User: Fold this.
Amino acid sequence: MKLQPVTPFEPVITEQLPVGDSWIAQIKWDGVRMLSYYDGVSAELINRRGNRRTLQYPELTDITAYCKASSVILDGEIIALNSGKPSFHEVMRRDSLRKEAAIRAAKDQIQVMYMVFDILYCNGKWTLDQPLSSRQLLLAEMLLPHPNVQLVPSYQNPAELLSAARTNGLEGILCKDISSTYTPGGKDKRWLKRKIISDVNAVAGGVTFRDGRVNAFLLGLYDEDGRLHYIGHAGSGRFNVEEWRKVTAEALDLATTESMPFTTLPPRYSGALWIKPQLVFKVHFLEWNSSGTLRQPVIQASVHIPAQECRFKGQKN
Assistant:
């Protein structure tokens, strides 16, 4: 049977950690959510938006090498490490590749790990209605040792895991009700995420230059009426020379002589080039200022999503 893509179940942001024996905690990986499908004949890797990424990760396409099920759907996160910590920038360098030669070269340069935390289908049967506790036992039974695949460990004390994640500079943790079933496309409080590092997907409406090359972006989010509000001015310490050259060319192609795209003139607009709002970036920041801008925003990576998805809704909680 050809397996159809599943929209993954999503957690809800929380500030208050749950307590009680019905909860487990897992590390929140700073990577790319990925479901892997094997129908007994062919394999596919498909991200949370339903986009195929099978070509981008050739080391993960032989699902029989890391799962002994005759057919299966696994849910997890693909990560790439930098200095021992997950780096969204590094994994996006893999995820954004389209040419086979570049993918082959990057396979050795940027090694990835598939962190698997759930199993939705196994040996011809759906497991969606089973409690998480049962799915985890089944997942542990089905996974095989593999250099690029790991079972995500679960912990009984969310507060201790959050403290460890903070000490190690990780993004945060997830807390899951062990009785929870898996609802495709769902998002509710049976799964919670507690962030240490806040992030947002924002679109660039302008750029500034240094020595003829883009060095920072003027970022914005859309409101419910489709108006673009300025939220901050950010650069990236993660981009290499080639990546800065690439975004400079993209920005120049998007340069516009039309009016400034933001609702109000940004405070740091001197020397800025206004561009059509199409370049989207994942941005880490400390908190929201009372002025509606981000405190200490830093660009992590380019993100290939429509600019109109960069909205205020849900961003400040």
Summary: The chain has five helices and 19 strands. Residues 10-195 form a domain with the D-amino Acid Aminotransferase; Chain A, domain 1 fold (CATH 3.30.470.30). Helices lie at 88-95, 100-109, 132-142, 158-167, 241-253.
